Predict the 3D structure of the following.
Amino acid sequence: MRIGIDIDGVLTDRERFAIDYISKYCVENNIEYNIGDSNYEDCKTFNINKEQENDFWNKYLEYYSINEKARPFASEVIKKLKEDGNEIYIITARWLTNRDDDVGNKMREIVKDWLYENKILYDKLIFSKATNERKSQEIIENKIDLIIEDSPNNINELSKVVPVICYHAEYNKNCLGSKIIRCYSWYDIYSKINNLK
């Protein structure tokens, strides 16, 4: 089986990072915020404007990309999946990786180094162009059988093409469908993939 795996929100706990660090950023910059219902868009979770959200990620993206650790057992489970004969395709649309300049090159290198440092094995690394339609095309082009994703838009769009393992987050709790399989940990993912076979 060819398994596609997203990075942010799947290999990392992006939701927790955002809650911890955006609240810090807001307090330090005297920005009024109000944490409401979790949303994939941080500005909606914190009730701040898009400019403030972008300023936060401009300041913290590199720190997050280098220092945020992989979720517990992600490396271990991916190794098991490979030992079971599966191919692993890391498919990420991380901010800046689609740029064709020094900034894009630097972020792509940070991603590769992070995967190595966190012992994440893979057969192919795909830097997606950040649109639902493009990610669907990449899945079709690479003959992906199953993808692990957290973005609500991607989950809903990609489930039209392949089964999607939805890595649970508050912001994707309303993603439902016959081809959407909700999981809560990496060993839960391993169990559900084995049940699909």
In short: The chain has two domains: 2-13+69-196, 14-67.
